[in-house]
């Protein structure tokens, strides 16, 4: 299982609705998928969304706990993804693994190079529009 303790996943309604369009309907119990993460997400109002939680357009700083290397990127919709600009798709294995989690959380992610452990060191979010 990718997120051993199944840390809480928190999302705002707008992100949930956008991502739901991309998620399949099949949810495998021991597999990380967007459908599974959305199924267990706690949907909150913008005003109740934790400032240190990852959402679409968050700038995220992770530390690979196996190598101590830092990884920084922005989490975006697939059509906005651009590896050169450090903009990762929310549908990528990394995006699915981190969305809805919070600064300080430790996660496991199955990436193309194998399973990796990360610490979410910092989450930068722009304020919600009033």
Written overview of the protein:
The protein is α/β, with parallel strands linked by helices and 130 residues long. The protein has a single domain, classed as Chitinase A, domain 3 (Roll). The protein is 15% helix and 30% strand. The protein is built from three helices and seven strands. The chain has a five-stranded mixed β-sheet with strand order 5-4-3-7-6. The protein starts with 9 loop residues before the first strand and ends in a 6-residue tail after the last strand.
Index terms:
130 residues, alpha/beta, Chitinase A, domain 3, five-stranded mixed β-sheet, two-stranded parallel ribbon, 3 helices
What class, by secondary structure content? alpha/beta
Characterize the quaternary organization of these chains.
single chain
Helix content: 10-25%
C-alpha geometry: globular
Number of helices: 3
Order of H and E elements: EHHEEEEHEE
Strand content: 25-35%
CATH arch. level architecture: Roll
Q: How many DSSP-defined strands?
A: 7
How many domains is the backbone divided into? 1
Radius of gyration, taken over Cα atoms and rounded to an integer in Å: 14 Å
What order do the strands of the largest sheet run in, or round the barrel if closed? 5-4-3-7-6
Mean pLDDT: 86
CATH class label: Alpha Beta
- State the major sheet: 5 strands, mixed
Head-to-tail CA distance between termini: 39 Å
Low-confidence parts:
none
CATH topology title:
Chitinase A, domain 3
CATH superfamily: Transcription elongation factor, GreA/GreB, C-terminal domain
